[in-house]
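pasting GtrA family protein for the record, 132 residues
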Amino acid sequence: MSAMISNRITNSPVFKFLIVGGISTLVNYSAYVLLFTVFGYTYSIAFVAGFLSGVAFGYYFNKRWAFGKQEASNLRLVLSYFVVYALSMIAGILVLKFLVTGMQVHPLIANFFTIVLTTCTNFVGLRYLVFR
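structre below
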Protein backbone atom coordinates (compact mmCIF):
# COMPACT_ATOMS: atom_id res chain seq x y z
CA MET A 1 0.00 0.00 0.00
CA SER A 2 2.71 2.52 0.94
CA ALA A 3 4.68 1.58 -2.20
CA MET A 4 1.59 2.30 -4.27
CA ILE A 5 1.11 5.69 -2.61
CA SER A 6 4.81 6.50 -2.97
CA ASN A 7 4.73 5.49 -6.64
CA ARG A 8 1.64 7.58 -7.24
CA ILE A 9 3.26 10.63 -5.66
CA THR A 10 6.58 10.31 -7.51
CA ASN A 11 4.80 9.86 -10.84
CA SER A 12 2.52 12.87 -10.42
CA PRO A 13 3.06 16.00 -12.54
CA VAL A 14 3.17 18.12 -9.37
CA PHE A 15 6.04 16.09 -7.89
CA LYS A 16 7.97 16.07 -11.17
CA PHE A 17 7.35 19.80 -11.66
CA LEU A 18 8.70 20.46 -8.17
CA ILE A 19 11.85 18.42 -8.89
CA VAL A 20 12.47 20.21 -12.20
CA GLY A 21 11.50 23.47 -10.55
CA GLY A 22 13.87 22.85 -7.66
CA ILE A 23 16.78 22.34 -10.01
CA SER A 24 15.68 25.29 -12.15
CA THR A 25 15.44 27.38 -9.00
CA LEU A 26 19.01 26.44 -8.05
CA VAL A 27 20.13 27.56 -11.50
CA ASN A 28 18.05 30.74 -11.16
CA TYR A 29 19.21 31.63 -7.66
CA SER A 30 22.85 30.74 -8.34
CA ALA A 31 22.90 33.05 -11.35
CA TYR A 32 21.16 35.76 -9.30
CA VAL A 33 23.62 35.54 -6.40
CA LEU A 34 26.62 35.41 -8.73
CA LEU A 35 25.50 38.40 -10.79
CA PHE A 36 24.36 40.44 -7.77
CA THR A 37 27.18 39.74 -5.31
CA VAL A 38 30.19 38.90 -7.47
CA PHE A 39 29.65 40.98 -10.61
CA GLY A 40 27.77 43.85 -8.97
CA TYR A 41 24.72 43.95 -11.22
CA THR A 42 21.58 45.54 -9.79
CA TYR A 43 19.15 43.14 -8.16
CA SER A 44 16.63 43.77 -10.98
CA ILE A 45 19.07 42.83 -13.75
CA ALA A 46 20.34 39.87 -11.75
CA PHE A 47 16.72 38.76 -11.22
CA VAL A 48 15.90 38.83 -14.94
CA ALA A 49 19.09 36.96 -15.90
CA GLY A 50 18.60 34.37 -13.16
CA PHE A 51 14.94 33.93 -14.00
CA LEU A 52 15.65 33.42 -17.71
CA SER A 53 18.42 30.92 -16.99
CA GLY A 54 16.00 28.88 -14.87
CA VAL A 55 13.30 29.06 -17.56
CA ALA A 56 15.68 27.89 -20.26
CA PHE A 57 16.86 25.00 -18.11
CA GLY A 58 13.34 23.94 -17.15
CA TYR A 59 11.67 24.00 -20.57
CA TYR A 60 12.96 20.66 -21.83
CA PHE A 61 12.53 18.79 -18.54
CA ASN A 62 9.09 20.19 -17.80
CA LYS A 63 7.88 19.36 -21.30
CA ARG A 64 9.28 15.83 -21.52
CA TRP A 65 9.37 14.60 -17.96
CA ALA A 66 7.06 16.61 -15.69
CA PHE A 67 4.15 16.92 -18.10
CA GLY A 68 4.99 13.97 -20.37
CA LYS A 69 4.70 15.75 -23.71
CA GLN A 70 6.76 13.83 -26.25
CA GLU A 71 5.72 15.61 -29.43
CA ALA A 72 8.13 18.01 -31.04
CA SER A 73 8.03 21.58 -29.85
CA ASN A 74 5.86 23.81 -31.98
CA LEU A 75 5.50 27.56 -32.04
CA ARG A 76 2.34 27.57 -29.90
CA LEU A 77 3.93 25.43 -27.22
CA VAL A 78 7.16 27.43 -27.05
CA LEU A 79 5.40 30.80 -27.14
CA SER A 80 2.81 29.85 -24.53
CA TYR A 81 5.56 28.47 -22.26
CA PHE A 82 7.53 31.68 -22.50
CA VAL A 83 4.42 33.87 -22.11
CA VAL A 84 3.59 32.11 -18.82
CA TYR A 85 7.13 32.69 -17.62
CA ALA A 86 7.27 36.27 -18.94
CA LEU A 87 4.11 37.15 -17.01
CA SER A 88 5.51 35.39 -13.97
CA MET A 89 8.78 37.29 -14.35
CA ILE A 90 6.96 40.63 -14.51
CA ALA A 91 4.96 39.74 -11.41
CA GLY A 92 8.18 38.58 -9.76
CA ILE A 93 9.97 41.84 -10.49
CA LEU A 94 7.06 43.81 -9.05
CA VAL A 95 6.96 41.66 -5.91
CA LEU A 96 10.75 41.83 -5.56
CA LYS A 97 10.77 45.62 -5.91
CA PHE A 98 7.96 45.93 -3.37
CA LEU A 99 9.75 43.70 -0.86
CA VAL A 100 13.12 45.45 -1.32
CA THR A 101 12.03 49.08 -1.58
CA GLY A 102 8.68 49.04 0.21
CA MET A 103 9.31 46.52 2.96
CA GLN A 104 13.12 46.96 3.26
CA VAL A 105 13.75 43.21 2.87
CA HIS A 106 17.32 42.32 1.83
CA PRO A 107 17.38 41.50 -1.92
CA LEU A 108 18.70 37.95 -1.38
CA ILE A 109 15.89 37.12 1.05
CA ALA A 110 13.26 38.96 -1.00
CA ASN A 111 14.20 36.94 -4.07
CA PHE A 112 13.64 33.69 -2.17
CA PHE A 113 10.05 34.68 -1.34
CA THR A 114 9.53 35.86 -4.91
CA ILE A 115 10.67 32.46 -6.22
CA VAL A 116 8.13 30.68 -3.99
CA LEU A 117 5.32 32.85 -5.38
CA THR A 118 6.36 32.47 -9.02
CA THR A 119 6.74 28.69 -8.61
CA CYS A 120 3.04 28.45 -7.76
CA THR A 121 1.93 30.67 -10.64
CA ASN A 122 4.22 28.84 -13.05
CA PHE A 123 2.78 25.42 -12.21
CA VAL A 124 -0.79 26.58 -12.70
CA GLY A 125 0.09 28.29 -15.99
CA LEU A 126 2.04 25.34 -17.37
CA ARG A 127 -0.44 22.69 -16.22
CA TYR A 128 -3.61 24.38 -17.43
CA LEU A 129 -2.50 26.64 -20.28
CA VAL A 130 0.62 25.13 -21.86
CA PHE A 131 0.74 21.35 -21.28
CA ARG A 132 -3.00 20.68 -21.00
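Residues 80 and 130 are 6 Å apart (CA to CA).
The radius of gyration is 16 Å.
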